[in-house]
Amino acid sequence: MKKAIVLVSGGMDSCVTASCAKKDGCQLSFLHINYGQRTERRELKSFNDIAIFFNVKEKLVVDMNYFNHIGGSCLTDLKIPVPKDNIDNHEIPVSYVPFRNANILSVATSWAEIIKAKIIYIGAVEEDSSGYPDCRRSFYDAFEKTIKEGTKPETSIKIMTPLINLYKKDIIKMGVELKSPLHLTWSCYENGNEPCLKCDSCILRSRGFKQADITDPILT
Amino acid sequence: MKKAIVLVSGGMDSCVTASCAKKDGCQLSFLHINYGQRTERRELKSFNDIAIFFNVKEKLVVDMNYFNHIGGSCLTDLKIPVPKDNIDNHEIPVSYVPFRNANILSVATSWAEIIKAKIIYIGAVEEDSSGYPDCRRSFYDAFEKTIKEGTKPETSIKIMTPLINLYKKDIIKMGVELKSPLHLTWSCYENGNEPCLKCDSCILRSRGFKQADITDPILT
Which of A79, A108, B20, B202 has the fewest C-beta atoms lying within 10 Å of its C-beta? Predict the structure, then answer.
């Protein structure tokens, strides 16, 4: 059974990605990153709930709160407000955390090299996403090459992005089909007890469920 | 004046690299990483001393102590002893911290994207080094491509490795020529008040000074 690290934020995409890794027959290790995001507390709860659901034995939670010092994103800098109803603006949004996914994949690779995981699964979405540059497959291809160049010769690690070309509605349908625990996930960018339903992430989620003609289990 | 981030560990190579960046006419911003290394306390002192020497206004110190949880290296796992007199063994040594430089460059890139630095200087040495895979220029070329793919279209960041092809003795000669503050640097892998003179890093340093026919200022 191949060991795989799944990057699990606590959101819907990474949850469905974990189901894909399980379907692929992998033994799952979960990695969660606190990068100083507003929703850290709530996301970590979802991460732990999802880990229990998948019966994951090997978990790592990493603090990257240096992103608060670096700033420049509404997710990590409390002085920058989270925009509302901004989803059809095609510029890179202010929620973009600079080069975040490279930081995350670097930790994942370091851990993978030690625990001998052969695959890293990440729930990045290029097609129907917020337009982040570090969510494109071309970025993951470049990163895979970097792994090859920067690790031991015997280390071989692939990056799997099973959702990269899917639309949100298809991710939700896939999640339902794979019996993914969508009821345990959290998407909202704000730090409330209930989703705000107005931020980019809430709007993408609710539009996806509507288009899939499925009721969001966290709203029932 | 172009802004450049210099990765400054507190060691000799990064100190000479800072001198190279200054010679290239850059405005220097210094980044130091605590990755849970044994010598963290001593290295941080050298970092701060070197920053004062170069009159650096913009500094960032980042904690990556997750490397202690990941382990697998004698630098970050206190259960693994630091080998002595091991320098001519051509295998990748146990001081290799898995994919460390990718983690470091990722933070540097995130910071560079926000403070609008155009260059990252890193004092990696391929030729006369400990044989770490993430110290080869091919790794930095791959990482540069990853930066291009994973950042905003208007972001343009180069990675400069001015020492990559030099032998230790030539780095020392260059440091002396550029009036680099070698007396402020720290190389030893152990966490003592004086260099142990037996670890890989001490041996590389003393061999370099001997070959350059220069007295190491930290030993006088």
Answer: A79
